Amino acid sequence: MRSIGALGKATNTKVETIRYYERIGLLAPPQRTDGNYRTYDDEALARLSFIRRSRDLGFSLDQVRALLSLTDQGTQDCKTVDRIARDHMAEIERKIADLIALRHELSTMIESCGGGNISGCRIIEALSPFDN
Amino acid sequence: MRSIGALGKATNTKVETIRYYERIGLLAPPQRTDGNYRTYDDEALARLSFIRRSRDLGFSLDQVRALLSLTDQGTQDCKTVDRIARDHMAEIERKIADLIALRHELSTMIESCGGGNISGCRIIEALSPFDN
DNA sequence: ATGCTCCCTGTAGCAACTACAGGGTCAAGA
DNA sequence: TCTTGACCCTGTAGTTGCTACAGGGAGCAT
Ligand SMILES: [Zn+2]
Ligand SMILES: [Zn+2]
Ligand SMILES: [Zn+2]
Ligand SMILES: [Zn+2]
User: Fold this and answer.
1) In this complex, is the C-beta atom of B87 within 8 Å of any C-beta atom belonging to chain A?
2) A128 vs B: CB within 8 A
3) Is A40 helix (H, G, I), strand (E, B) or coil?
4) What's the domain range around B121?
5) In terms of pTM, does the model score above 0.85?
6) CB pairs under 8 A, 24+ apart, for B12-16?
7) Alpha-carbon distance A25 to A30, whole Å?
8) Do A90 and A102 reside in the same domain of the chain?
9) Torsions phi, psi of A36, nearest 5?
10) Which site from A10, A100, B61, B101 is most exposed, i.e. has the minimal number of CB atoms within 10 Å?
11) Which among B74, B95, B110 is the end of a domain?
């Protein structure tokens, strides 16, 4: 059994974040000490580690919730797990493509800056309408 | 002079968003009609277009605010403009790198799924602690 | 007069936390 | 024993950039 602070250190999670996960139902309310302190067992540690790892991989809390509830009924087919992961992957791909397009536009813009005063700056021009 | 709805259409911006920009001081409060309707002139249109273009390029509202106030004093050196743009570019680069690393991890994970039931799924295993 | 579309203000919601304020608890040292 | 300090508690509000109402008023056409 460990305190919320110890759990936080073990999982690299802020105490407030742990309480937040409890509030939104992602972590079960743990047992309390006589002084009303939360105490966590190893299962809670494993569950929070799972959550953090999933979050680090960019899954949304809703996706994490789904993954957790699927894991809790471990006898089912893992098709849904696969689906969630692939959907997330597709989203990442989309974001990468968007950002690469953005980078191209930005770099063109930045390279055009001649370095005079602002009224003649090409960056500002590129942002402004009606002066193409 | 145009109504808020017309300005919204012209800049592809929702009416609520325009009011929001006004509330946070990004757009000046416009003139009003007798019936208390906002009316916008061409300058407001240009300003909102600038904002939208900057937002499309991923600048934060704070960055947009800075760019606008720099533009308003057009005689200054454009060093600061350049700086904002380069900072933003660096952030985009960081995000791209992060997402590419993420994609690598995810694809490894997804490819490892053999398709049985959940308790043996490699995706779940990859997310879980203590079972490496 | 009635409907319809637009506009107004003010407030609350989204994601995923984070940061207090204003207290209580607990272990250790003087 | 008393006190100090680190930790914990609840509850609420802030962050970013909007978006969505609710409950009204304005303006125009029929
Ligand atoms: Zn290009
Ligand atoms: Zn320049
Ligand atoms: Zn790898
Ligand atoms: Zn699987």
Assistant:
1) no
2) yes
3) strand
4) 77-132
5) yes
6) B12/B52, B13/B48, B13/B52
7) 12
8) yes
9) 70, 20
10) B101
11) B74
Q: Determine the distance in angstroms separating the CA of A73 from the nearest CA of chain B, rounded to an integer.
A: 8
Q: Chain A residue with minimal CA distance to B53?
A: A127
Question: Residues A88, A129: one domain?
Answer: yes
Taking the CA of residue B12 and the C1' sugar atom of nucleotide C20, their distance in angstroms comes to: 39
> What is the count of structural domains for chain B?
2
Let me know how long chain B is.
Answer: 132
B85 & B21 share domain? no
Looking at every residue in chain A, the average pLDDT score rounds to: 94
pLDDT for residue A74: 79
Q: Quick count: other Cβ atoms within 10 Å of Cβ A113?
A: 20
Is residue B89 a contact partner of residue A104, using CB atoms and an 8 Å limit?
A: no
State mean pLDDT over B63-68.
96
- 3-state SS, one letter per residue, for chain B: CECHHHHHHHHCCCHHHHHHHHHCCCCCCCEECCCCCEEECHHHHHHHHHHHHHHHCCCCHHHHHHHHHHHHCCCCECHHHHHHHHHHHHHHHHHHHHHHHHHHHHHHHHHCCCCCEHHHCHHHHHHCCCCC
Residues B67, B82 within the same domain: no
Of the candidates A52, A74, A96, which is a domain's last residue? Answer: A74
User: Is the Cβ of B111 closer than 8 Å to some Cβ of chain A?
Assistant: no
C-beta atoms of B102 and A50 within 8 A: no
Residues B26, B90, single domain; the answer is no
Strand D bases, protein C-beta under 7 A: 7-11, 16-21, 25-27
Residue type, B101: A
Torsion-angle region of residue B101: left (phi > 0), alpha (psi -120 to 50) or beta?
A: alpha
Neighbours of B19 (CB within 10 A): 14
